[in-house]
Design brief:
Layout: H1 3-15, E1 21-25, H2 29-42, E2 50-54, H3 61-64, E3 71-72, H4 81-88, E4 93-96, H5 105-112, E5 119-120, H6 123-135, H7 137-153, H8 159-182, H9 220-230, E6 236-239, E7 249-252, E8 261-262, E9 276-282, H10 295-306, E10 307-318, H11 320-327, H12 334-345, H13 361-370, E11 373-379, E12 392-393, E13 396-397, E14 399-406
Parallel strand pairs: 1-2, 3-4, 4-5, 6-7, 6-9, 7-8, 9-10
Antiparallel strand pairs: 10-14, 11-14, 12-13
Length: 408
């Protein structure tokens, strides 16, 4: 699961008011449930529409899936045996086909059951198909009958035929190798060619346009980034920025008038590897966990991924050493120490405004080094934006400003 597919799920719930989202409780579900409920509320969806249930014993779990009307597959990594279980139970599955084995497994299974209607090519199409089926019960019932019928007559669940074909393939492979050995010739190499996504549009049996026919189906973020790369424009990201600048794109988890990309700082999915010239982040990194979930490590690795070799990271965080020194100074008035406390722990005006880690220079550099950054320089002021990185309290700079390079 990732933020993109979760947002798609929440859009489906918003457009189908009678719907709920059903999750199974796997290991570690306690923390996950809290996070999912919070994210649902952040998307404007009442968290009681997320239903959680404990796992059944292995002998019952396939039958239990028949309760569901639709299974919504995860594009980042498809369900594999779980999707086969759902299809075996007769439940339709919607999947967004990717370009690698792990995110094409479900489309392969659907194709083997002649259910290509349920393979989509964009998040837009993913949502539209789910909403159409959820709001047209007669179509969904007919589709479900197709799933139930096809599983008995198509090759996906014909294990005897599969075993026979697999045995034949193994024998042929051995005969090829054996013949080369007997003739003293070197063994031939095996070449696996990358998959080519078909541009052919299969006719869908209900009226939802395929993304392959839809000129507006491409992710607008990815298109914007690609246009910048095509025209060789430098890409500079201002993470969590509050000041608009024509030279910088603002990335924030919360939407706003000046926000260019609404996405989590740990998942800059629209940006390719080695595509970003500079990342600027002022008093954002402290919002990541350093223990549970390891958000801090994931975020820094993600920033390192998108930066070009030698790309610059300009990061500012609250200087915990300076703030702690000020907080313990009893000569500072109470109301000022309350403000300092808020800087340490976050203003907590929403679910994102919580500080979960503290830094001094040694701690910050250690995390940056671990993520692949090098060549660290400390600055009093980056000279870019009038923001928290320039704050001085009682003649004490409270921001730790570090410049680093993405070493690759």
């Amino acid at each position: 699961m990732d933020p993109s597919v979760f947002s798609a799920w929440m859009e489906i719930l918003a457009r189908v008011p009678s719907s709920v989202m059903w999750f199974q409780e796997y290991f570690g579900h306690e923390g996950a449930i809290t996070n999912l409920r919070n994210e649902a509320e952040a998307h404007g969806i009442n968290d009681n529409r997320l239903i959680f249930s404990s796992l059944d014993s292995w002998i019952d779990h396939t039958y239990r899936k028949r309760i569901a009307d639709l299974i919504l597959d995860t594009p980042l990594k498809n369900g594999h045996t779980t999707i086969l279980d759902a299809l075996c139970a007769g439940v339709p599955v919607i999947t967004l086909e990717g370009d690698q084995m792990h995110n094409r497994a479900s489309s392969s299974a659907l194709n083997a059951l002649d259910l290509h209607d349920l393979t989509v090519n964009s998040f837009k199409e993913y949502v539209e198909v789910a909403v159409y089926l959820a709001t047209h019960k007669h179509v969904l019932q007919k589709l479900r009958k197709n799933v139930e019928d096809n599983r008995l007559h198509y090759p996906l669940f014909d294990t005897a035929k599969y075993a026979t074909k697999f045995e034949e393939a193994i024998k042929v492979a051995w005969q090829v190798k054996k013949s080369r050995l007997l003739t003293g010739k070197p063994t031939r190499e095996m070449h696996i060619f990358p998959s080519i996504q078909s541009s052919t549009v299969m006719p869908r049996r209900f009226p939802v346009l395929s993304a392959k026919e839809d000129s507006n189906a491409e992710d607008e973020y990815i298109v914007r980034v690609q246009n910048a790369l095509d025209t060789q424009q430098p890409i500079r990201l201002h993470i969590g920025g509050h000041i608009k600048s024509p030279d910088w794109w603002i990335v924030d988890a919360n939407d706003g008038d000046i926000v260019d990309f609404v996405m989590y700082i740990s998942n800059l999915y629209a940006f390719r590897d080695n595509s970003v010239d500079t990342i600027y982040s002022s008093h954002v990194l402290e919002h990541c966990t350093h223990g549970f979930g390891h958000e801090l490590e994931h975020t820094l690795r993600e920033w390192h991924r998108v930066l070009r070799p030698g790309g610059q990271l300009l990061v500012s965080v609250p200087n915990l050493f300076a703030l702690a020194t000020l907080f313990t100074n009893e000569s500072i008035p109470h109301q000022h120490r309350v403000w300092i406390m808020n800087v340490i722990y976050g203003g907590q005006i929403d679910q994102y405004d919580l500080h979960k880690v503290g830094f001094d220079e040694t701690i910050l550099v250690a995390y940056l080094s671990q993520a692949g950054f090098c060549d660290f320089t400390r600055h009093d002021d980056f000279g870019l934006f009038n923001d928290s990185s320039t704050l001085v309290v009682y003649d004490t700079p409270i921001s730790l400003n570090i410049q680093a390079r993405a070493c690759k």
